Amino acid sequence: MLSSFFFLAETTGDVADAGKAVALALGIGLGSLGAGIGIGNIFGSMIQAVARQPELRGELQGIQWLGFALTEAVVFYGLIGGLLAYVLI
Protein backbone atom coordinates (compact mmCIF):
# COMPACT_ATOMS: atom_id res chain seq x y z
CA MET A 1 0.00 0.00 0.00
CA LEU A 2 2.74 2.42 0.90
CA SER A 3 4.79 1.74 -2.23
CA SER A 4 1.84 2.49 -4.53
CA PHE A 5 1.38 5.85 -2.79
CA PHE A 6 4.97 6.86 -3.55
CA PHE A 7 4.58 5.71 -7.15
CA LEU A 8 1.46 7.85 -7.52
CA ALA A 9 3.18 10.84 -5.92
CA GLU A 10 6.12 10.53 -8.31
CA THR A 11 3.98 10.47 -11.44
CA THR A 12 1.73 13.29 -10.28
CA GLY A 13 4.45 15.92 -10.68
CA ASP A 14 5.33 14.71 -14.15
CA VAL A 15 1.71 14.62 -15.23
CA ALA A 16 1.15 18.12 -13.88
CA ASP A 17 4.19 19.43 -15.76
CA ALA A 18 3.00 17.72 -18.93
CA GLY A 19 -0.45 19.24 -18.49
CA LYS A 20 1.05 22.69 -18.04
CA ALA A 21 3.18 22.21 -21.17
CA VAL A 22 0.15 21.12 -23.21
CA ALA A 23 -1.85 24.10 -21.91
CA LEU A 24 1.00 26.44 -22.81
CA ALA A 25 1.22 25.02 -26.32
CA LEU A 26 -2.54 25.23 -26.83
CA GLY A 27 -2.65 28.80 -25.55
CA ILE A 28 0.12 29.96 -27.85
CA GLY A 29 -1.26 27.98 -30.80
CA LEU A 30 -4.78 29.33 -30.42
CA GLY A 31 -3.44 32.86 -29.93
CA SER A 32 -1.46 32.55 -33.14
CA LEU A 33 -4.45 31.10 -34.95
CA GLY A 34 -6.64 33.99 -33.85
CA ALA A 35 -4.05 36.53 -34.90
CA GLY A 36 -3.68 34.85 -38.29
CA ILE A 37 -7.41 35.00 -38.86
CA GLY A 38 -7.50 38.64 -37.75
CA ILE A 39 -4.62 39.66 -40.00
CA GLY A 40 -6.20 37.87 -42.95
CA ASN A 41 -9.44 39.71 -42.26
CA ILE A 42 -7.66 43.06 -42.07
CA PHE A 43 -5.78 42.64 -45.34
CA GLY A 44 -8.82 41.16 -47.09
CA SER A 45 -10.93 44.12 -46.05
CA MET A 46 -8.18 46.47 -47.20
CA ILE A 47 -8.13 44.87 -50.64
CA GLN A 48 -11.91 45.17 -50.92
CA ALA A 49 -11.90 48.78 -49.76
CA VAL A 50 -9.18 49.81 -52.22
CA ALA A 51 -10.94 47.97 -55.03
CA ARG A 52 -14.12 49.94 -54.33
CA GLN A 53 -12.52 53.35 -53.73
CA PRO A 54 -8.90 53.53 -54.89
CA GLU A 55 -8.59 57.20 -53.96
CA LEU A 56 -8.76 56.32 -50.23
CA ARG A 57 -5.76 54.01 -50.35
CA GLY A 58 -3.37 56.35 -48.51
CA GLU A 59 -5.90 57.05 -45.78
CA LEU A 60 -6.76 53.41 -45.27
CA GLN A 61 -3.18 52.19 -45.27
CA GLY A 62 -2.36 53.78 -41.90
CA ILE A 63 -5.41 52.18 -40.34
CA GLN A 64 -4.44 48.85 -41.89
CA TRP A 65 -0.95 48.88 -40.36
CA LEU A 66 -2.30 49.93 -36.96
CA GLY A 67 -4.75 47.04 -37.03
CA PHE A 68 -1.97 44.68 -38.10
CA ALA A 69 0.28 45.78 -35.23
CA LEU A 70 -2.47 45.50 -32.62
CA THR A 71 -3.53 42.09 -33.87
CA GLU A 72 0.06 40.86 -33.86
CA ALA A 73 0.45 42.10 -30.28
CA VAL A 74 -2.18 39.57 -29.21
CA VAL A 75 0.24 36.76 -30.07
CA PHE A 76 2.88 38.23 -27.80
CA TYR A 77 0.36 38.72 -24.98
CA GLY A 78 -0.60 35.05 -25.32
CA LEU A 79 3.04 33.99 -25.35
CA ILE A 80 3.99 36.01 -22.28
CA GLY A 81 0.81 35.07 -20.43
CA GLY A 82 1.30 31.40 -21.19
CA LEU A 83 4.92 31.46 -20.10
CA LEU A 84 4.05 33.27 -16.88
CA ALA A 85 1.27 30.79 -16.13
CA TYR A 86 3.61 27.88 -16.84
CA VAL A 87 6.30 29.22 -14.53
CA LEU A 88 4.10 30.53 -11.71
CA ILE A 89 1.56 27.72 -11.44
Can you tag this structure with a few keywords?
single chain; 0% strand; 93% helix; mainly alpha; 89 residues; elongated
Question: Can you walk me through this structure?
Answer:
Helices cover 93% and strands 0% of the residues. The protein has 89 residues and is mainly alpha-helical. α1 packs antiparallel against α2 (57-88). The longest helix has 51 residues, at 2-52. The protein starts with a helix and ends with a helix. The mean pLDDT is 84.
Show the helix and strand layout.
Blueprint: H1 2-52, H2 57-88
Helix pairs in contact: 1-2
User: Low-confidence runs (pLDDT<50, min 5 residues)?
Assistant: none
Structural class: mainly alpha
Instruction: Note the run of SSEs as H and E.
Output: HH
> How many β strands by DSSP?
0
Sheet having the most strands: none
Q: What count of helical segments does DSSP give? A: 2
- Kindly provide the radius of gyration, computed on alpha-carbon positions and rounded to a whole number of angstroms: 22 Å
Helix content: over 70%
User: What is the average of the pLDDT values?
Assistant: 84
Please indicate the percent range of residues in DSSP E strands (runs of 2 or more): under 5%
- Shape assignment: elongated
